[in-house]
Amino acid sequence: MPRETTSVSREDYLKAIWELEQDDQAPISARLAEELEVTPPAVTAALKRMTRDGLLRIERDGYIRLTRQGRSEAERLALRHQLAEKLLTDVIGLDWTLAHAAAERLEHGLSPEVEALLIRRFGADSACPHGVPLRGGLARLKRTQHAVVLADVPVGRAVEILAVYEKDPKFLEFLDARKLRPGVRIRVVHREYDETPTAPVAGHKAYLGKPATSRIWGRILACTVLLDGKAVKSCTLLAVQASGGEVTTIEGLASNSQKGSGNGAAGNGALHAVQEGFWEKHGLQCGYCTPGMILAAVDLLQRKKNPNESEIRSALSGNLCRCTGYQHIIEAVQYAAKKMNARKPLKMSASSGRTP
User: Fold this and answer.
1) Cα-Cα end-to-end distance for the chain
2) Quick check: 226 and 295 in contact, CB under 8 A?
3) Which of 64, 89, 171, 293 could cross-link 27 (Cys pair, CB 3.0–4.6 Å)?
4) Is residue 195 part of a domain?
5) What burial class does residue 89 get, using C-beta atoms within 10 Å of its C-beta: 0-12 exposed, 13-18 middle, 19+ buried?
6) Together in a domain, 165 and 133
7) In which domain, by residue range, is 114 found?
8) Does residue 352 register a pLDDT over 50?
9) How many domains does the chain have?
10) Per-residue pLDDT tens for 234-271?
């Protein structure tokens, strides 16, 4: 049943509009009424007041747009909400499935002084118990981590859960019972005709329907790794096959370069030459294919110093660029080859444990 209009503050309306934007949902009055559980006439009246106060504007297509002032107020309340959740779970010990509802009541009472102390306590770059960053919300995850809903993850791909929908305690209990929380890594191993994915979690399989997978955001992990310098698909490789070998991921490429391994970096913390090439020649694009492209290119350049364009295309053929930016990627590999060939051989220290 819709709530009384007096129980919903101006800040609640602004935050609800901001959250709809974060979730890529069109902020319209009907959806706002559903989200806040108020009547459509109450929403209409509230929107008129906030338009008059310069907090939002309503476009001709009915979309609600926050002004700079309105967005600032919405983001401030969202921050206080997430700080309240962390206070309740990390300090008081409240179960994460109950934190959202409790924080809804607590967020309005946090003073600027308490807000500053909580930010200092938890860190400005931390996240709420449900994985949403304190600053930037879901939009930040999508922008910096390429977060996608689990429903869109292809079969065979590994994914790290980044955030989950927090407003439904029953849904959070469902996840908790299956040990699915932010930070957990899973792999989609099967998908039924009705789009129900199957994922192994902590030694068992979890069957997740479309409603659940559309409420979980994750980061697709790179499948391609270097095993003893050779590019392989980790998603199809058994652990025993990698036993005793040296595995380098896209995250470890630059850090390995710091050791002076002779793989195209200066040994001082700089990017690998291939990574630098992708940066300089605009080969990054949207980022989905980048890890596989870079590691396949590293493998190629370790085997062949001056590959021609045909050889580069062949080496990268197992990776699809959905942005169709192949020419930039080829130029990036050619750039890296020239840079690696021009670099003087690195002198290895006796304590490095590696040979040139």
Assistant:
1) 72
2) yes
3) 64
4) yes
5) buried
6) no
7) 76-137
8) no
9) 4
10) 766 777 888 888 888 887 887 555 444 445 444 455 78
